[in-house]
Amino acid sequence: MDREHLVVIGNGMAGCRAVEEVLARDPHRFRITIFGAEPHVNYNRIMLSPLLAGEKTFDEIVINDRSWYADHGIDLVVSDAVIAIDRDTQTVTAQSGRVAQYDRLLIATGSDPFIIPVPGKDLPGVVSFRDMADVDMMVHTAALGGDAVVIGGGLLGLEAAHGLALRGMQVTVVHLMDTLMERQLDEAAGWLLKAALEGRGQTILTGANTAEIFGEGKVEGVRLTDGRTIPASLVVMAAGIRPNVRLAKEAGLAVHRAILVDDQMVTSDPAILAVGECVEHRGQVYGLVAPIWEMCRALADGLIGKPNSYEGSVTATKLKVSGIDVFSAGDFVGGDGAEDIVLRDASRGVYKRVVVKDDRVVGAVLYGDTADGNWYFDLLKRSEDVTEIRDALIFGQAFASGGGQADPKAAVAALPDDAEVCGCNGVSKGQVAACIADGAGTLDAVRATCKASASCGSCTGLVETLLTISLGDEYAGERTAKPMCKCTSFTHDEVRALIVERGFRHMPQVMQELHWSTPDGCASCRPALNYYLLCAWPGEYVDDQQSRFVNERMHANIQKDGTYSVVPRMWGGLTNPKELRAIADVVEKYDAPMVKVTGGQRLDIFGIKKEDLPAVWADLNAAGMVSGHAYGKALRTVKTCVGSEWCRFGTQDSTGLGVKLERKFWGSWMPHKFKMAVSGCPRNCAEATIKDFGVICVDSGYELHVGGNGGIHLRGTDLLCKVATEEEAIHMAAAFVQLYREYARYLERTAPWIERMGMEWLRALLIDDVKGRDALAARFWIAQSFSQDDPWAERAAGQDRNLHRPMAEFRPITQLEGVAP
Amino acid sequence: MMPQWIDVGAVEEVPLRGSRAIKVAGGEEIAVFRTGSGQIYALINRCPHKNGPLSQGIVHGDSVTCPLHSWVISLVTGEAQGTDKGCTPTIPVEVHSGRIMIERAAALRLAA
Ligand code: SRM
Ligand SMILES: Cc1cc2nc3c(=O)[nH]c(=O)nc-3n(C[C@H](O)[C@H](O)[C@H](O)COP(=O)(O)OP(=O)(O)OC[C@H]3O[C@@H](n4cnc5c(N)ncnc54)[C@H](O)[C@@H]3O)c2cc1C
Ligand code: SF4
Ligand code: FES
After folding, report:
1. How far apart are the CA of A433 and the centre of ligand 4, in A?
2. Using the beta-carbon criterion (under 8 Å), do B74 and A811 form an inter-chain contact?
3. pLDDT of A405-428, one tens digit each?
4. Which terminal Cβ of chain B has fewer Cβ within 10 Å, N or C?
5. Which atom of ligand 1 is nearest to the CA of A639?
């Protein structure tokens, strides 16, 4: 009897697996022909990465060799792509002209690499990473050494980069998004991955957009949209894949993003099935093999008449770069009602985040230790209730399902005395217990006595558990020093000190090294960390706009109606006709409803729209005015009085000194706002004794006052010292400001800071320790050399222009329909 | 009727942990957010407290802190978090091939 003829288009992972599944169910049901565009037998595509890395040979990645096809009587047609399907005659035509008639047709054409449409994309030396031919070409080019650029920092791109680096090329990865593998990883894990790859010598450019690939006759390099160029003799396009649906579309099958199939993988034509990356099932298109295996099972069941539905897959991803463990599964965004459980172990370079929603694991991101990946993935797929093991969940399967061990307290109690609790300082459990027995009843006391948990803090939980075990009810569990926010157990002072001591240079690094309990901090720690890093690494740290409060991001003060107020600097309270005219013009041109003289001796223009800000600034810049930072945790104003130049009591040029101070100190970021004033005599018309730094001129020189505050809690200044010259006054101001910048907590003004530290401390550092004072001042001027760029000028010139513009604007069509005749 | 989607721009036009506003003629501004995890959300750009422009807030986790008086609003449900009570309407949003699509009817519902 004539058997039905099953024709398969695509000799890849899905096509051959489907055939295997069919054969396993009924080896004699079909006569089978497979068309493959590639010259090879069926090989394991995912192993192309280890193949490129030189860890495997082609023979080792073959799934089915020639004898398999022969043994099952399969007619394999290689190097002959099918170019048309004729559904009326039920035939397919291949490139060679060969025609095959089918009873059942299976389309398994996979995906095509997405080639970004930039000039030079067709130059020799540009390659994608999809099949054996691509790998051959890469291996061949890499043998000559030189530079490679990989476009795309997803799974494929990073595996390509790894392989090429192992083959001796100098590799740069160009990634459009800010986070590597952003589909699978959150920012924290993406940052760790980036740091690890950079540590291996790769250059990773995130937020980088390719403008063109250039070269004479062959690739010579890549130019980015920001103008940077990177030399390269090889460019790998790994910017994504597109389902290969051309044949299906031309044959008139239903195609959306990919070929539409039902739960038995049947297309809109009952005689035609489709499977693999080229299909869309229940709205999903997959790019991994695990779902494909499930699809193939349902397909084979359906084909031999035992319908069994494919219901879609949840997927997990692992990066195949030796020595770097990355795992991601499910939905790590979580959304509402979802709770993040985060565990960071900096000494081992581990970041784990499990997302739990309605008592079920819905996602996981693991970096550095992926041993429990499959366990989380299993919990996720089975949608198992994890209430019982929730507390121990993040520590992994061994801990969570270890019976008695499920109680973390019991687990810690069971540790032997010589078990190391604090890896950084080499403190054992016995030592911590002894230190508690000797009277250290709080975490701070333990940290101070035996140093456990005093460095990276990863053992804080362990130490707290030991305190609870030893002290029982006596241990209040509360620290005397308040942590910075709910994301960490460290205080502001500890975080600051550690940033400098350990040389942390990026926010995700601080969060990882100090074991933040959230993936990306909160609205309270992010601005503080941004400031601490900026203060610690002037000229080096790149300010994070998204960690700034709105006013500092927009360089204007937000008002209750969402408009902004704009305050240009008037140095020392002085102005002139040109400035006044420019302000008057701005008020009229942009319809500002109000302009007001502030308490800080300058003018405030109210009610400016977000979109108009850059234009307003451009107009003010044109008249020589710069931002007054009326919005900033920075120098606000320097109030002055008329002084010796006009006033009959004036002893020194207070106006002149005020102008000098403002010109030297503007632009510096501080823990809180900072105000100065210079009065020409003790009558003190500029109110210098309620300023953060106030100068009172006297006949013999200048009295320098600090720590005044006119706000909620009125505080008069303390006299710091008296100096003879303006230069000394400015020098002391610089040292004082730097001391404040380095020691105050974020959002702590000088008044409460001085109350906390004491004037004794201040005088010891600023008056007695002359070298220390000079060093402080020197550090301040270095920082200033990077901070006196007018933010308004940068914005008016187009920087961050997007912040001021709506992303899109649209009008309802219905309005237009009303006009139709 | 099938929902209609409007393409409002590319994902990377919204800064990571940031937001962009969309103007709707005769209607209310929409704020599109991109979280640290890369997820895209859209809400009416108005705080339930006193109408603060949420697009100007600090984005953390799946929430935004309002720039005016620091209410924390869930990007997923639009609900104020903690003890604060109030809700901002959410706008259905999808991402296809790196483009952000918002649902037409919801976006225009409040327009004239
Ligand atoms: C415009 C101005 C009032 C005026 O019309 O005169 C003003 C306006 C605001 N002040 Fe002020 N302060 C202004 C001078 C003052 C003064 C007087 C001074 O500087 O001589 C003080 C008391 C002195 C002091 O700071 O020690 C003052 C003490 C405050 C405080 C309380 C600070 C404190 O430490 O207790 C706040 C709240 C805060 O900063 O957290 C505040 C906060 C504000 C804010 C920024 C409120 C806000 O966060 O939105 C107001 C912004 C309005 C806007 O949109 O422009 N403003 N504010 C003054 C601008 C001065 C300038 O040219 O930059
Ligand atoms: C380098 C690399 C690493 C990967 N790593 C992983 C991983 O770690 N984990 C994971 O789950 N997935 C991984 N993948 C993805 C995985 O390989 C794919 O999901 C899988 O191969 C898809 O199977 P498929 O059969 O749909 O497509 P393919 O395997 O691409 O097979 C399609 C075949 O059809 C052929 N074809 C196309 N059109 C025609 C035509 N008209 N006529 C005849 N033949 C045609 C193609 O030449 C190809 O051989 C990786 C992919 C690559 C490229
Ligand atoms: S006194 Fe109060 S209301 Fe007046 S400007 Fe200052 S902060 Fe605003
Ligand atoms: S308007 Fe948003 S918190 Fe007040």
Report:
1. 48
2. no
3. 445 566 677 777 877 777 666 778
4. N
5. 20
pLDDT score for B108: 76
In eight-state DSSP terms, residue A765 is I
**Structurally, what CATH architecture does the domain formed by B5-111 represent?**
3-layer Sandwich (2.102)
For an interface test with A, give the residue of B5, B13, B32, B58 to mutate (most A CBs within 10 A): B58
Q: Say what the pTM is.
A: 0.72
Residues A43-50: contacts with CB within 8 Å, 24+ apart?
A43/A132, A44/A13, A45/A12, A45/A13, A45/A130, A45/A131, A46/A13, A46/A289, A46/A320, A48/A129, A48/A131, A48/A132, A48/A134, A48/A135, A49/A159, A49/A160, A49/A162, A49/A163, A49/A320, A50/A320
Distance from CA of B45 to the nearest CA of A (A): 10
Q: Which of B50, B58, B81 to mutate to test the pocket of ligand 4 (most atoms within 8 A of CB)?
A: B50
Question: Is A521 a pocket residue for ligand 2 (Cβ < 6 Å)?
Answer: no
Taking an 8 Å cut-off on Cβ atoms, the answer to whether B39 and A333 are in contact is: yes
- In angstroms, what is the span from residue A798 Cα to ligand 4's centroid? 30
Kindly provide the b/e burial profile for residues B70-104, where b requires at least 16 CB atoms within 10 angstroms of the residue's own CB.
Answer: ebbbbbbbbbbeeebeeebebbebeeeeeebbbbb
Low-confidence spans in chain A with pLDDT less than 70: 1, 334-336, 400-411, 423-425, 454-458, 473-481, 812-821
- The SS3 assignment for B4 reads coil
pLDDT per position as a tens digit, B43-70: 999 999 999 999 999 999 899 999 988 8
